[in-house]
Amino acid sequence: MRRRDLLCAAGLAPLAACRRSQTGPLQTIKFGVQPFPGMSVFYLGLERGYFRDAGLDIQTEVLTSGSQVSSALASGQLDAALNSSGPGMFNLVARGGPLRIVMGREVISPVCGDAAVVYARKKVFPEGTGDIRRWIGKHFSTGNKTGLGEYFLDTILTSAGLDPKKIQRTSLSAAEAAAAITSGAIDAVLNATNLRLGLDSRPEIVRETAGATAIDQLQYSYVYFGPRLLAADPAIGASVLRAYLRASREFVTGATPQFLKDYVTSKGLNSSVLQECRSSFTPDGSIETKDLQVAIDWAVSRQYVEKGLSAESVIDRRFWDLARAKA
Fold first, then answer.
1. Mean of pLDDT values over 64-73
2. Is residue 15 pLDDT above 60, yes or no?
């Protein structure tokens, strides 16, 4: 085996050098994802071979929760992942865990997806939920107590100058929340994910986007790297991001992965989802440091995180900078 091939196999050579060899091995990257439409850019890159073009053999592992993703990253079971920010990740970093945000990915968009969308009982909100002041005193389900639903709700209320403590909350799964709002046990559901709940198919429930509009463009999801990529030649991580960005540019201008088509069919969603969910992605991968700091400060204020962190301490920009420089 030639010296260059040996270096490629060991992950010690720049990936550009590995790609020049027609017979050289691909760099294996273990990538964690979750089964949501927000994975569309990643799957577009896989389906079109952009990661393979970059000298990468992507092995996907589908996980069901953000906490699973963070733990798998920090332990080295995964090399990279798509995940939201949250207390679990912040605590791991605060304890010295080897995982970092390397690129921005997804933002709140009232015209795309379902994150921060409210499903409300019409009897409780006869005038709708468009005026956020009407939320005060009502009973909401927000999903996981330490998760995105709580963060979104608090951020929406704070942006409207309201006291988050004046809303009653219950932590319920999506199925539990659907049963609770139908029976009248709760007044509203704030969606913590971009996975459409579809509760508005019931005549007594209305779907409204006032909450999502209040925090429109709030960045909450990122590309993460674990210990192996963080310690490797930055050219390897940069090649991962470059392939992702290549797919991102095509997705936001209309390319649709088979993954998303299959998802829409399997969930019985309206075909409009295939075209409308383009505005919730950060096409250039920039990281909104301000938004990340808001999430950290919220977690600290709720005492979900042991100590305060600066947003920059959670970020490693080497890979994105190199990816942009060689794009």
1. 85
2. no
- Alpha carbon distance 80, 65 (integer Å): 15
Task: Say how far apart CA 275 and CA 204 lie, in whole Å.
Answer: 28
Query: Looking at 56-187, which runs of residues are DSSP E strands?
Result: 56-62, 80-84, 100-107, 118-121, 139-141, 168-170
Interacting residues of 155 by C-beta distance below 8 A, sequence separation 6+: 215, 218, 294, 298
**Exposure class string for 282-318: b at 16+ Cβ within 10 A, else e:** bbebebbbebbbbbbebbbeeebbeeebebeebbbee
Rounded average pLDDT over 59-67: 86
What's the burial of 261, exposed, middle or buried (CB within 10 Å: 0-12/13-18/19+)?
Answer: middle
**What CA–CA distances, in Å, run from 10 to 22, 51, 243, 312, 327?**
17, 18, 21, 30, 24
At 34 the pLDDT is 85
- 72 contact partners, CB below 8 Å, separation of at least 6: 32, 61, 63, 78, 81, 226
Model pLDDT for residues 262-275, shown as the tens digit of each residue: 988 887 777 777 77
Domain architecture of the chain: domains with CATH? 3-107+220-325 (3.40.190.10), 118-214 (3.40.190.10)
Question: Residue 327: what pLDDT?
Answer: 62
Question: Could you tell me the CA-to-CA distances from 286 to 92, 104, 225, 291 in Å, in that order?
Answer: 23, 5, 15, 12
pLDDT tens string 114-131: 889 999 999 999 998 999
Q: Which of 117, 118, 116, 121 is nearest to 181 (CA)?
A: 121
C-alpha span between 278 and 280 (Å, rounded):
6
Task: Give 185's DSSP letter.
Answer: S
